[in-house]
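During the reporting period the student researcher (J.K.) took over the structure-prediction task from the postdoctoral fellow and processed the backlog of single-chain submissions. One of the processed entries is reproduced below for the supervisory committee.
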Amino acid sequence: MRIAFHAPLKAPDHPVPSGDRQMARLLLAALRAGGHEVATASTFRPFLPAPEPARMHAAEAEATREVERIAARWAAEGPPDLWFCYHPYYKAPDLLGPRLAARFGLPYAAAEASHAGKRAHGPWAAWHGANEATLRAADLQVCFTPRDAEGLAGLVPPERIAMLPPFIDAGPFGAVARRARGGGPVELVAVAMMRPGDKARSFAFLAAALGALPPGLDWRLTIVGDGPERDATRTLFAGLPRDRIAFAGERAAAGVADAMAGADLYVWPGFGEAYGIAYLEAGAAGLPVLAMDCGGIGSVVVHGTTGVLTPEGDLDAYARALAALIGDPARRLGLGEAARRMVLGERTVARAAGVLSQALACWDRHR
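J.K. obtained the following C-alpha cells:
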C-alpha cells in the first residue's frame, strides 16, 4: 500500500528526542519492512500544552491551509491508499487526516490513539470532540497495550482493533557484549530526558529510593540524559555520595548501548510511562529492569521474568526490591537473560511488520 503517515504530537524528524519521536520512526520502519511505501504527509504539529483559545484557532487555520496544500499535491500526483496517524489525542488531535480521508475517499488508521472522556467539558472540549470523532470513524486502531484498547472501549468496535506489543529496532542494544567485571560496585543505569512533570517525579523517586538503601550495599548509578531540568535533576541526587552518581549526559543509541553494556541493572520508576521504549532497549542489552507497575510498563517488563515491578508510588517497596536485586547477582543474571530472549525474539521491527501487515490485510478484506 501507499501510506501517508502523520504524527501530530511530534513528527519523526523533530529535532528533540523523545519516546514519541522514536516510536513514530519505528512505525515507519515496520510499515516499510512490511513492503509498504510510506511517506510523512506533513510535519504540521498542532500540539498545545495548555488550552489557549487563540492558539487553538490559529492551529485550526494553519491546518486548513495544510489540508489544501496536501490536497493540491495529491490531485497532481495521485492520493495514497491509506492515511496512518500516530498518537492522536486531545492535546494533539489529527486536524488533517479526517478531512483528507473524506475528500479522497481514503481509509483511516491510527496507532496509540488516546481518549480522555474527562475532557469532554471545559477548555479542551472542542479538541477532545474532534479527537473522539476521529477515533470513532477510524477504520483501524492499532493498540500497543491493553490499557490503550480499554480506553477505546465503547468508541471502537473490537473488530477494528489490532494489538501490537511495543517493539524496538534492537540495533546496537542487541549487539551488546556484556562486559565482565571482577567485583566492584553493582552498576545501575537509568536513561531519561530531564524535563518537568513525570520525568522529574521519577528522578526524585529514584533519588529517594537510593537514599533509603542500607549503608552496607555497594552500588553506583550512571544517569544518561539531558534536558531543561538538568540542574534540578542534579540537585535531587546531591545528598548521595558524589562518587556513586555519574551524569553521562545525552548520548546517541550507540552511547546508550555502551552504558548498558557495563551495567548490572536498569532502574527507572516510570511515572506516567505509556510503556517505555528504554525498558525494551535495556532488555535487548541483557539488563534486568526495576520499575513500578503503572501505565503500560507491564507490557514491556514481565514481572518476575524479565524484571521486577513494584506498586506505583510505594517508595519502601521500590527501595526493598532495589536492595534485594543489588544483593542477588544470580537473579539479576537470570532476569537479564530472559529479557534479552524476549526482546530479540518477540519485540522486533520484523515481528511488528508482520503484525501490521496482517492487520491491514484483514481490514482490507472485510471493509
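The committee noted the following: The chain has two domains: 2-167+349-366, 171-346.
J.K. will present the remaining backlog at the next meeting.
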